[in-house]
């Protein structure tokens, strides 16, 4: 970068800050405002699975549900119980009270970071500005769940695979090596400045693909932008979807640990896909396991939704005392205990 004269110090500062990690992350988030709410529907399913609202959240009422800030504060308390939040207005019927709730929530989420804090304001949320709220939802999911999923996906799937191999139905190798399905396609390799498959340096090619995955998985914003493009480009079905979309391998896990009988498993195996999902949801509800996989996944399963559901199931089994249900990272699973406690209080 060429040095500029003193009269343009402000421009120098702006040019430098444009290159920082925070500024680049902000640019990525800004691009997500052009996405339709259906592109991030998994976030709505995630919120519903936690049962933080008395209403069933959908693509139409989510903006109203977030308006007074109480739902966001409950989400923060669920994932960060160590954070003490005083002066919450549960109903917040007046604008002043709602804004106060929202300001408290945003100050915790953004940590007063100017790069992020300026993106979505309390007034944006209160006035139900959809594009701004989409950015907030992406940040919330990325902060509380996606960052965890990217770290635990491999050991989580390896745990499932150990059991499934005993039934001679192991997971695809691609499911284990690339659960989020971010292997660069031909039309993306050139853009990422990676060498093609005919590269003479195989190690360099593998290193390039690793860097590609790290770049895409650094946040939910970058991932959802990538997936939105790939869905337009082809009709490729990820291997993790092929493995779990019919629910059979999930039923095998429940059968292995004694939550369904052999007769129930055989019955589930012959059901059509709609009734398989119905059976799975009833089982999850009976066991007080958060339900992520909803009806819309009959024909269009989502990798992130599948991984999130698998995580909730795995933690339930581990929490029941089974030694082979590995402790992926205890600090990331505490909320399930709170979830169960809430369920008991409501009954």
TrEMBL record:
- InterPro entries per record: CH_dom, CH_dom_sf
The UniProt entry, under Gene3D superfamilies, shows: Calponin-like domain
Ranges for domain Calponin-homology (CH): 37-145
User: Which N-terminal residues, if any, form the signal peptide?
Assistant: none
Give a Pfam family name. CH
Protein name, entry field: Calponin-homology (CH) domain-containing protein
Q: Which organism is it from?
A: Plasmodium coatneyi
């Amino acid at each position: 970068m060429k040095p500029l004269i003193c009269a343009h110090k402000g421009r120098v500062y702006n040019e430098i800050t444009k290159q920082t990690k925070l500024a680049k992350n902000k640019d990525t988030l800004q691009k997500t405002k052009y996405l339709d709410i259906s592109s991030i529907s998994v976030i709505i399913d995630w919120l519903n699975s936690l049962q933080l609202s008395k209403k069933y959240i959908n693509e139409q009422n989510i903006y109203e549900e977030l308006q007074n800030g109480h739902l966001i504060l409950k989400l923060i308390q669920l994932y960060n119980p160590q954070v003490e939040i005083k002066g919450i207005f549960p109903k917040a019927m007046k604008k002043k009270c709602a804004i106060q709730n929202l300001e408290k929530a945003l100050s915790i989420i953004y940590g007063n970071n100017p790069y992020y804090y300026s993106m979505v304001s309390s007034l944006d949320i209160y006035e139900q500005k959809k594009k701004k709220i989409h950015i907030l939802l992406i940040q919330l999911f990325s902060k509380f769940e996606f960052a965890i999923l990217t770290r635990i996906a491999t050991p989580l799937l390896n745990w499932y695979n150990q059991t499934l191999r005993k039934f001679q139905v192991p997971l695809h190798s691609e499911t284990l090596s690339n659960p989020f399905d971010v292997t660069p396609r031909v039309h993306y390799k050139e853009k990422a400045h990676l060498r093609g498959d005919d590269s003479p340096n195989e190690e360099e090619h593998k290193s390039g693909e690793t860097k590609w995955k790290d770049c895409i998985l650094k946040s939910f914003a970058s991932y959802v932008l990538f997936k939105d493009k790939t869905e337009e480009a082809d009709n490729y079905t990820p291997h993790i979807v092929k493995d779990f979309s019919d629910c059979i391998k999930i039923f095998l896990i429940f059968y292995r640990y004694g939550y369904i009988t052999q007769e129930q498993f055989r019955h589930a195996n012959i059901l059509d896909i709609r009734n398989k999902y119905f059976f799975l949801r009833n089982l999850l509800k009976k066991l007080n396991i958060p339900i992520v996989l909803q009806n819309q996944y009959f024909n269009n399963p989502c990798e992130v939704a599948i991984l999130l559901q698998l995580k909730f199931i795995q933690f339930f089994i581990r929490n029941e005392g089974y030694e082979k249900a590995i402790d992926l990272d205890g600090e990331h699973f505490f909320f399930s205990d709170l979830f169960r406690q809430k369920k008991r209080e409501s009954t």
